[in-house]
Write a structure and sequence with these properties.
heterodimer; A: mainly beta; 6-stranded mixed sheet; 5-stranded antiparallel sheet; B: mainly beta; 4-stranded antiparallel sheet; 10 strands; about 45% strand
């Protein structure tokens, strides 16, 4: 299977703490994307990092990419209760679709 | 502007009945994707449309599943003779450019939650 994997499967932290989620993928990529999903509904795009980039920032989000290890991480700094959601990484499949793992379920407690 | 919309938002159907799920992509988006997400699982890719054409239908789980897209816009996913294992959230996404070397950001609809009883 080409399915990627997010790690950990679940993460519970207190508001104000940082949350780090990891993603491993199995094929060569030209970019990797992170998405957020609330309550099992549609995914919202957070950030895209290209294969020639090692780190990217967007607000409280920091994404790193290590193509030699086929892995990426998403760091959410100073987390808020509103960050509670599932987070998925997605990378390119053969038809332009994205291949997703099972996601990391983040719970931020106030 | 309007995002991707899907209807119905929820559908409960009896085993053996046919269902039709609809997706309205963002206007002008040429690429459209259907995914399925079972409870607590990741997203399973079903089918991709470039314009009205679906080059590869091998991702559809069985021959009970079919999809079409008309006018380069609205798409319908039809499931015939539904089974309990078809219960899932069906998500549609669109993207502004055709697939190529660069995989673009995808814009997802809110999904249709299908329950087969």
């Amino acid at each position: 299977s080409q399915q990627g994997e997010e790690d950990p499967q679940a993460l519970s932290i207190q508001e104000g703490e940082n949350a780090t989620m990891n993603c491993s993928y199995k094929t060569s990529i030209n970019n990797l994307q992170w998405y957020r999903q609330n309550s099992g509904r549609g995914l919202v795009h957070l950030i895209l990092i290209r294969s020639n980039e090692r780190e990217k920032h967007s607000g409280r989000l920091r994404v790193t990419l290590d193509t030699s290890k086929k892995s990426s991480s998403l760091l959410i700094t100073a987390s808020r209760a509103a960050d509670t959601a599932s987070y998925f990484c997605g990378y390119g499949g053969s038809q332009g679709n994205l291949i997703f793992g099972k996601g990391t379920k983040l719970s931020v407690k106030p | 502007g309007a995002g991707v919309s899907q209807s119905p938002s929820n559908k409960v159907t009896e085993k053996g009945k046919d269902v039709e799920l609809r997706c309205d992509p963002i206007s002008g988006h040429t690429a459209l994707y259907w995914y399925r997400q079972s409870l607590g699982q990741g997203l399973e890719f079903l089918i991709y449309f470039q314009g009205n054409s679906a080059p590869d239908k091998s991702g559809l789980p069985s021959d009970r599943f079919s999809a079409e897209r008309t006018g380069g816009s609205v798409s319908t996913l039809t499931i015939q003779r539904t089974q309990q294992e078809d219960s899932a959230v069906y998500l549609c996404a669109s993207s502004p450019r055709p697939s190529g070397r660069e995989f673009n950001e995808q814009y997802f609809g809110p999904g249709t939650r299908l329950t087969v009883t």
